[in-house]
Amino acid sequence: MLKGSRREAMGLALVTPSFLFLLVFFIVPAALLFVCSFWLAHSFRLIPAFSFDNYSRALSASGFYVLTWNALKNGLCTAAFTVALSFPTAYFIVYRTRGNLLFYLILVSWFSSYLVRIYAWRVILGSNGLINTTLMQLGLIDHPIEVLLFSPFATILTLIHIMLPFGLLLLVSALRDVRREYIEAARDLGASPFEVLTRVMLPMCYKGIIGAFMFTFVISAGDFVTPQLLGGREGMTTGILIANQFRSSGNWPFGAAMAFLLLAAFLLVYFVFVRLLHLLRLAPGRRFHD
Amino acid sequence: MVDTPHGRPFGSPNIFRNDVLSRRGFLGTSLALGAGATLGSWPGPMPAQAAVGGDLKIMAWEGFTLDNELKGWREANNVQVDAAIISTQDDVHAKLIGGSPVRLDLAEYSQGFEHFYVDELKIVKPLDIAKVPNFTPENIQPEFYNAPTWYWNDTHYAIPWVWGLNALVYNPEMTQPIKSYKDLLAPELKGKLTFCDDTIATWPMIARIAGLGPKFPNLTKDEMKTAFEGLGPYRDQCRVFGSSNGDVISLFSSKEIAACFCVWSGTPVETAKRGVKTIYAVPEEGAVMWCDAWFMPISAQNMDTGYAFMNEAISAKVQAEVCKAVTGGAVNKHAPELMDAHTRALFDYSDLQQVFKKSPLQGQPPRTSDVYATYDEWTQAWTDFKSSF
C-alpha cells in the first residue's frame, strides 16, 4: 500500500513540471485566446463582448475557404508522402540494420535551419538551379522547367524534406514495439508479405502512424513561410491571414477566430483519418501484442 | 503637455463595464502571463537623468541604429545604446500600448503612423525642440522641417532623419529599359515581375496607376476596388510575390525575376554585392517616398540622452555617413556636400521640390472611416490581390 502511494507520488512529481509548463504556456493562453475570439477590436484595442461576428466574418469570406483549402492540401500531401516514405525507411532501420547510423544520418538535416533549407530548395529548383541546369546541359530540355519552383510542388517537396525526420522518428519508435516474433509467427502461419504488413504490422503500430501523420499534417498545414517563399501565387495559406490580423491590423479577436476555425479543420482531419484507418481494418483500437 | 499612461484609455479596464482593453492590458489580466508581463516590463528604480549618459534603449530598423556613425559620441558621453530591431512597424506600438508599456527612450515611425500613434494610441511624447539644436530651418531641408507628418498644433512629435524612395527596380540584362509602369506588361516579362509585400510602399503606387494618386490615402471603397482591378494584368505577369525587401534581393540575385513593381531604392546596391546588376528607376508615374523619424515614446526615461542622440543623428556628418550605409537621403541641407559622389547622386538635392512633386510623401489609409476604405480593408484587398481572388 505504502509502496503504491509512493509510486503515485513519484509519478505525480515526474508529471507535474511538464503539466504546469503546458498549463501556463499553452492551456491558459489558448483558453484566453478562445475567449478573445468572441471579443471585438478597434485600432489595436480589445473590446470585451460576446459576439460571433469574427466567426461569421471569417466563414463568409471566400478567401478564407480558398486559403484554408490550400493549407489543408499542403498538410495532407506532405503528411501522406512523409508517412509513405518514412515507413519503409523505419522498417529497414528497425529490422534490417544493427546500428542507428542511417537513422542519425537522416536526423542530421535538423542541424540546418529551417529558412536555410527553404532557400536551399530555391537554389535546387530555380530556373538557373541545379536540376534545370543539369537537364539543360544534358540536352534533355531547351528551357528551364518553371513549374519546379513557385508552385505547390515546390512547397510540398520542401515540407516533406523538413518533416521526414519527424515522421521517421515516430515510426521507428512505433515499429520497435512490433517484435520480430510476431512477424515471424505470422509468416510461419502462412501470411503473405502484404498480409504481414496489413494484418500484423500496421494494426500494431497504427498509433505511431496516426502520430506521424497528424504531427506532420498540423505543422505543414499551419506553416505559411514555406508556401509564401516557394509556393508562388498559389502559395498563400490561412496562416498569412491570421498573421495579418495579429500584426498589421491589430485585430486579435478576428485572428483568434480564424485560428480556432483552422484548429477545428485540423480536428476534423484527425477524426476522418482515424475513422478511415478503422474502416480499412488497420486500427483495431487495441494493442495486439499486449 | 506630457502624456502619461494614467491619462490614456488603457489603464485599469473593467471588463464587466465593457471597458476597452489593450492587447497588453488583456494579457495583463491573465493569471500567468500577466505576472510575467508585469515582471518583464517593470523598469525598476532608476535615478532621474539630468545629463547625457547612461543606457539608452532605442528601437529602430536594421541598419538604422547608428552603431558605427555614433561610436565616438557614445564613447565621449559614456552612453550605452541598447537597440531592438524593428521588423515591421507593428513591433513598435506592440511594445508601447497597454497599461505597462515597455521602456523605450527612442523609437522610429514611418510616415503615415503619426496620427495613429499620437492621437489614437497616444504613445508619443511631445518633443521640446529646443533640446535638438541641429533641428533648425538653417540646417534642415524645408520639405522636412515642420512638415505635417511630424509637426501639428504647434507641437513637434518626431524628428525626421532619413528618407528614400521606393521605386521600380529591374535587371537590364533581362528586359528593355523601363520608363513607365505600362512597360511591365510586355510579353517578355511574363513570369518575371514581382511585387514586394511592403504594403505602405506599394499601395500609393497602385492608386497612382489607376489615376487616383492624389487622393491616396483617402480613397473610397469603390475607388480602392477600381485601383486593385486595374492591377490585375500586372499580377498576371507574376509567378511569385517577394515577402520582403530581402526576398526581392534574393529573387533578383537568382535571376528568377527581371523587375519588381515597387521596392527599396537600395536594392541595386545589395544585388550588386551578389554579382547581379539591377537598376533603380523612377518611371513617369513617379515613386513612393518614405521617411523615418525618431520619436520619444511615453515610456522614455533617459530623455536628455534621447534628445542628444536625435540631435547627433541629424548632424551633417552623421547624416552623410548613414545615408551611404543605408542608401538613403539626408534631411540635413549640409550633408550632401560631405557625401561621396555615389550617395549624393541617389537623389536630386538641388531640386527636392521636384522630387517631392513626383514622389510625394503620403500617409496611410485611416484606421476607421465611414467614407474611405480603411487600413483593414486595404490589407484585405492586398491579401486578395496576392491570392489571385
From TrEMBL, chain B:
GO terms for cellular component: periplasmic space. One of its GO terms (biological process) is polyamine transport. Its main location: periplasm. It is found in: Periplasm. Keywords: Periplasm, Signal, Transport. One of its GO terms (molecular function) is polyamine binding. Pfam families: SBP_bac_8. It comes from the Bacteria. SUPFAM superfamilies: Periplasmic binding protein-like II (SSF53850). InterPro entries: SBP (IPR006059), Sperm_putr-bd (IPR001188), TAT_signal (IPR006311), TAT_signal_bac_arc (IPR019546). This is Substrate-binding domain-containing protein. It comes from Ancylobacter mangrovi.
